[in-house]
Design brief:
8 helices; mainly alpha; single chain
Length: 208
């Protein structure tokens, strides 16, 4: 709990964050439309549903990404013992990047298989999923600097390893963004690979 009574507790911050996660992850499905009768004039319903597979792919990928961030957000907040104004604002910035994801997800679903638009669609998406990773790194760097926010009982080795992990994550996401300028397939493959990697359990907490 912060010494300043005007500051939020970490539990309140988590509750607010959970609400944003829930809204963002729900908004993803809105990009997949129910076909109108006009859509089905020249094709069957099953054919239409099958043709929407790029949107299903984009939805599934972003759903898993947001879900992973939600799970890891709870993991990370167990390491914090207090909060302050700057920390709160950094968390709000992180939530802004999460709430933004439904839009690039919709763009990716609409244009990933369109030859002339696939590359910019993947570039935009790769940039969008790098933003939460960048915000996450900022939160951790601020919180861990001189043990400003994190639990003093955490080992130096654990804090260092997490810092390295979050830096490496950003390097990979930036690489996916840069590669997307040349190859949409290679970039989206990296994005999927990173997502699958982060399905693994987080690092075990180490205390003195």
């Amino acid at each position: 709990m912060s010494d300043n009574s005007s500051e939020l507790s970490t539990s309140r911050l988590e509750a607010f964050s959970d609400g944003v996660f829930a809204i963002a992850i729900t908004l993803l499905i809105i990009e997949i439309k129910v076909p109108s009768h006009d859509d089905l004039k020249n094709q069957s319903l099953m054919h239409y549903i099958w043709q929407q597979w790029p949107k299903y792919f984009a939805y599934f990928l972003s759903f898993v990404i947001i879900g992973i961030y939600w799970a890891n957000h709870h993991y990370l907040f167990k390491l914090f013992k207090r909060t302050n104004h700057v920390f709160n604002l950094l968390n709000v910035f992180f939530l802004m990047t999460i709430a933004f994801l439904p839009y690039p997800t919709g763009v990716l679903g609409d244009y990933i298989i369109t030859v002339e638009h696939a590359k910019p669609a993947v570039t935009f998406y790769a940039f969008a999923i790098w933003l939460p990773s960048f915000a996450w790194l900022l939160i951790w760097l601020y919180a861990s600097h001189k043990r400003r926010i994190v639990d003093y009982k955490l080992t130096h080795h654990f804090v260092t390893k997490l810092t390295q992990q979050y830096y490496v994550s950003n390097v990979f996401y930036i690489s996916a963004f840069v590669i997307s300028l040349f190859s949409a397939v290679a970039s989206i493959t990296i994005c999927v690979g990173l997502t699958l990697l982060y399905l693994l359990p987080p690092r075990k907490t180490e205390y003195e």
